[in-house]
Amino acid sequence: MVVIRGATTIAADEKEEIRAAVKELLEQAVNRNGINRDEIVSIVFSSTSDIHAYYPSKAAREAGFEGCALFSAQEPEIVDGLKLCIRVMLFVEKEIAPHHVYLRGAKFLRKDLTSVINIAIDGPAGSGKSTVAKRLSADMGILYLDTGAMYRACALKVLQAGVDLNDETKIVDLMRDLKLDIAYENGAQKTILDGRDVSEEIRLPHVSMAASSVSKHACVRMKMVEKQREIAEKMSCVLDGRDIGTVVLPDADFKFFLTASVDVRAKRRYDELTAKGISVDYLSLKAEIAERDAQDEGRAIAPLKRAEDAVLVDTSDLSVEEVVALVKRKIQEKI
Ligand code: DC
Prior knowledge:
The protein has a 5-stranded mixed beta sheet, covered by helices on one side. A 5-stranded parallel beta sheet has the order 7-11-6-12-13, with helices on both faces. Strands 8-9-10 form a 3-stranded antiparallel beta sheet, covered by helices on one side. The protein has 12 helices and 13 strands. A hairpin with a 2-residue loop joins β8 and β9. By secondary structure, the protein is α/β, with parallel strands linked by helices. It starts with a strand and ends with a helix. The longest helix is centred in the N-terminal third of the chain and has 19 residues, at about 15-35. It has 2 domains: about 1-105, CATH 3.30.1330.40; about 120-335, Rossmann fold (3-Layer(aba) Sandwich), CATH 3.40.50. α5 packs antiparallel against α8. Bound molecules: 2'-deoxycytidine-5'-monophosphate. 2'-deoxycytidine-5'-monophosphate binds near residues 151, 212, 215 and 242. 2'-deoxycytidine-5'-monophosphate binds near residues 211 and 215.
């Protein structure tokens, strides 16, 4: 069971206003969390005392939320609190990382949400997203969250335990006991697994492939997405990954999707690994990247996909400087 929280505001205590606001709030909660209405066990509203308290649950029923228990309550007065505000809690019979929904000025209830900006950069392996994300975060003085490193750490855990990458039952147990911490040292992300810094180890090619495999499991994604949202809600950051703009932060302030040809991407990875003294064969690296693309794009949950509102950047013929400049220009244009 999870609880999805949310809030919205209305302009006046009128039935039509409440009806529209409640409908929008509930529909967004359902859509953003990918739940079915019949998975909702109950919906609890609480309204500020300037609203007819009973009406939100009536409005929910009118909006077609009929199969669950509906309650409306009135909140005690809060000095300087938001006026004409309706809060909601949806109790849902499903294991998901909840995406809370704050609309129409209610965002200001969450000070932590208003003062942060989130930049989502998605794309396949070697598209340049981590280089660009790191540069952007340094230039803007905000955090960089490498979500791929988190899936890599999960893969390492599974590999260390000698568990089959497809054995979801055993992986569920491993995820339950996972101790994964993201730390920062001089602005650089450190990935700490079971108290050990695994930042280098997770870059090895066999871990890349394993990360792509384990990341298809719901139990892994749920845990990672929850952690990522927790970080992004508290701090301004640039996040790179596969599903940031589509699933993790569909409301990110800025979204980019980086791509490049497989040849260019394989060459970049080859140069990166050989520079670190890791010997790799270019052709097998290229085959591995193509296989990983297919696996990441083809999985059922949160596949690698460009969000409709993400800016598409083909980095094949662009230098890092050119991509960073282009991304910054797009951010400036939107601000
Ligand atoms: O970005 P990367 O190459 O470090 O990611 C390693 C794997 O982790 C990638 O092949 C798929 C998975 N991944 C994911 O499924 N979702 C993310 N947000 C980031 C990575």
